[in-house]
Structures are given as structure tokens and as C-alpha cells.
Specification:
11 helices; about 270 residues; about 45% helix; alpha/beta; seven-stranded mixed sheet
């Protein structure tokens, strides 16, 4: 994997765990700064007609004949956690960023959603086999050890439980210069049409250069990974942008087709 600016600037004696910690700290700091704008984006979706589409994709994967124990990993502003709590489930929402958790708690109070918020590190402080449903949105691309961490997530599922995560190849353009040109043209179009842009996005791009998932072909990688795991079944659904995004958001994410993975624990 190519070395990033970050790795080029650290002493060769720094260990792999130290590098992972530095990357995770950098991402936490980035999302601290992004917490307010990202919260505004997510809450706009909560109060839009696309809320039903998100709910359909998530809760169409489970049977809601009782109160489910649900974990939202990387909850951010709390969008998925709020959807779940408003349906009457027992929800725990975890994130590394204290500012994101503060925004999520504020958003939950706004709509009257009862949620247990928990600040976590890269490994989750929850007992194995303790959740009926685990969900995550646009988080798996940030994992510093995706094989270990995804399996660790799935260990938290009860037998018969389901994990649903959404993601995209957010930094695919770092793989090839021709993709960068395509992205720059898209960004110009988004800006001209009043789309969202974040002035400090370059800092996350520098971090993404050192993240393993940046160099994976997704969701091909996800399908192959889960099919190799004993005790789990996997389904992948691709190109869901038109379903979950409004017209303006589709323009914004035109080059980032969202997929979602459904992982079921069989034993």
C-alpha cells in the first residue's frame, strides 16, 4: 500500500499499532470539526421523504415482532440510532468523536428518541452475542484493520442476528490520476449547482491515503471477505443512490455509488 504523507513524516521506529492510532486520532479530529455540518446534512434526511427509504432498507432485513437490541457503530449525528429508537427499539449508539456524540444526543432530544450513547475506541466494549441488529453508515472505509474490526463487530451479533452496513468507495480517485480529473469536474458541477463542499476535506484525503479500504475494490472485497467467514451469510446490494438520496444529493454523490451489505450470523 502506498505510504501517505503522514507515514512519510514519522520516524521509522514507530510501530504499526502506533500508526493506526495516529490515523484514528486524525479521523476523530476531522469529524470533530465536521460535526455541525454533518449533523445538518443527516438531520435534513431525517425530515425528508427519503427517511422511509432508509428505514425500508434497514428494517426490511429483520423481523420487528419484539423490542430489538440494536447497536449503531459510528453513529455520527445519530441518524440511524434515531430511526431505530423511534420504532421502539433498545438502541446503543457508539462513536469515537465526543463532538459527534454531543450532536447526536442533541438531535435525539429534539425528536424525543431514547438512546444510550457511548464513546468507544477501535475495539468495541460490548459483550459478544449481545445485539439483534448492528448497523453502520459510511464507516467501514475508515477501518485501520478491516478484517479484524469487521469480524469483531460481527462477534457482537446474537446467533440469528443481522448486521447492515452502508458504504462507498469514497476515495477511489486516489488510485488513478484519471479518476482525480473526473472528480474535479464533478466538484465544479456540484459547486455551480449549490451542492455541499467542505473546506478542510484535504486533511481527510491525506489520511485516506494510508487507509487499507482505499485500495480495495468494493463491494467485491466485502462479498469475498464475508463468504470466507465461518458462521455468517452475506448479501450485497449495489447502486442505491437513487433510492436513498434526493435529486440534489444524487448530484452530490454521482461518482460515489452507495452499496449496503447484509450479514447474518447463522451460528
Amino acid at each position: 500500500m502506498p505510504l501517505s504523507i503522514l507515514e512519510n513524516n514519522i520516524n521509522n521506529t514507530v510501530t504499526a499499532p502506533d500508526i493506526k492510532q495516529m490515523l484514528e486520532n486524525g479521523m476523530t479530529n476531522y469529524w470533530q470539526d465536521r460535526s455541525e455540518s454533518y449533523s445538518d446534512q443527516n438531520m435534513a434526511q431525517l425530515f425528508s421523504d427519503k427517511k422511509v427509504a432508509w428505514e425500508s432498507l434497514i428494517f426490511g432485513q429483520v423481523t420487528e415482532n419484539r423490542r430489538l437490541d440494536i447497536l449503531d457503530i459510528g453513529t455520527g449525528p445519530g441518524f440511524f440510532a434515531i430511526l431505530s429508537a423511534l420504532r421502539g427499539h433498545n438502541v446503543t449508539a457508539a462513536d469515537m468523536s465526543p463532538d459527534m456524540l454531543e450532536k447526536a444526543a442533541e438531535n435525539a432530544r429534539l425528536v424525543g428518541a431514547d438512546i444510550n450513547f457511548k464513546q468507544v475506541g477501535r475495539m468495541l466494549p460490548f459483550e459478544n452475542k449481545s445485539f439483534d441488529l448492528i448497523m453502520s453508515r459510511d464507516v467501514t472505509w475508515t477501518l485501520t484493520d478491516p478484517e479484524e474490526q469487521l469480524h469483531h463487530w460481527a462477534d457482537k451479533l446474537k446467533v440469528g442476528g443481522t448486521m447492515v452496513y452502508f458504504d462507498s468507495e469514497w476515495y477511489y480517485y486516489l488510485k488513478d490520476i484519471k479518476y482525480r480529473k473526473e472528480l474535479e469536474e464533478n466538484r465544479r458541477k456540484v459547486k455551480e449547482n449549490g451542492g455541499f463542499s467542505y473546506g478542510k476535506a484535504k486533511s481527510m484525503e491525506n489520511l485516506a491515503l494510508s487507509l487499507p479500504m482505499t485500495y480495495k475494490n468494493r463491494p467485491v472485497w466485502d462479498r469475498e471477505f464475508w463468504r470466507a467467514q465461518n458462521g455468517f451469510e452475506c448479501e450485497i446490494y449495489e447502486n442505491i443512490n437513487q433510492y436513498v438520496y434526493n435529486e440534489k444529493e444524487q448530484m452530490q454523490y454521482e461518482l460515489f455509488p452507495e452499496f449496503f451489505a447484509v450479514i447474518r450470523r447463522t451460528h
